[in-house]
Specification:
Strand order of the largest sheet: 2-1-3-4
Largest sheet: 4 strands, parallel
Number of strands: 4
Distance between the termini: 53 Å
Oligomer: single chain
C-alpha cells in the first residue's frame, strides 16, 4: 500500500499543495492533519504508522511534515524501517542512479541527517524570532493590548452567536 501523510501547523493553513502532490504520485490513502509538528502525539501520523506493514510505502512531500525534532524524526524513520516499510520523502534525492547499494545508502543517510539538522535548527530559529517579537511587543505595551484586543473580539463573536441563535428560534 502507498500511504501519504500531509500536515500543516495550524487550522488556518492549507493542505492543498501537499495533497495535490501526493495524489499525483498515486496514493492508496492519504492521512492529513492540522497540528503543530512540535507536538509528537499526532493522531493521524500515529494511525498511519500503526497501519504500516512490510512492503508498504509512506510518502511525505518534505521531511518537515513529519516534524522538526531530530530525535523524533529518527524515531519515525526507525519505526517505518522496523515494520519493513519504506519512507519516501519527495523533495529528497533518491540516489537510485547509483549502482552500489552501500554508496547509495551512505549518501541517502548523510543527506537525511543533514536535513534533520536543518529542520531542528529552523525550529529553534522560529522560537527565537517568536520570543524576540513578544519581547518587543511587551516593551512597546502592544503585547497586552493585542491579548486584550483578541479577548474583546472573542466576546463580540460570542454575543453575535447568541443573537443569531435567539433570532433563529423565533
Amino acid at each position: 500500500m502507498k500511504y501519504g501523510y500531509a500536515r500543516v501547523s495550524s487550522q488556518d493553513q492549507n493542505l492543498t499543495r501537499q495533497l495535490q502532490r501526493l495524489k499525483e504520485v498515486g496514493m492508496d490513502r492519504i492521512y492529513e492533519e492540522k497540528i503543530s509538528g512540535a507536538i509528537n502525539e499526532r493522531p493521524e501520523l500515529m494511525k498511519v504508522l500503526k497501519r504500516l506493514k512490510p512492503g508498504d510505502e509512506l510518502y511525505v512531500i518534505e521531511m518537515e511534515r513529519l516534524g522538526r525534532n531530530n530525535e523524533y524524526l529518527t524515531h519515525i524513520f526507525m519505526e517505518v524501517y522496523l515494520k519493513g516499510a519504506k519512507l519516501v520523502i519527495l523533495d529528497l534525492p533518491t540516489f537510485d542512479d547509483i549502482d552500489d547499494a552501500n554508496m547509495r545508502n551512505f549518501l541517502r543517510n548523510i543527506f537525511i541527517e543533514t536535513k534533520k539538522f536543518q529542520a531542528e535548527s529552523e525550529r529553534k530559529r522560529i522560537r527565537i524570532r517568536q520570543r524576540q517579537g513578544i519581547e518587543l511587543a511587551k516593551k512597546r505595551g502592544g503585547f497586552i493590548k493585542d491579548v486584550q484586543f483578541f479577548l474583546d473580539q472573542m466576546l463580540k463573536i460570542k454575543h453575535a452567536e447568541k443573537r443569531i441563535l435567539k433570532s433563529s428560534k423565533c
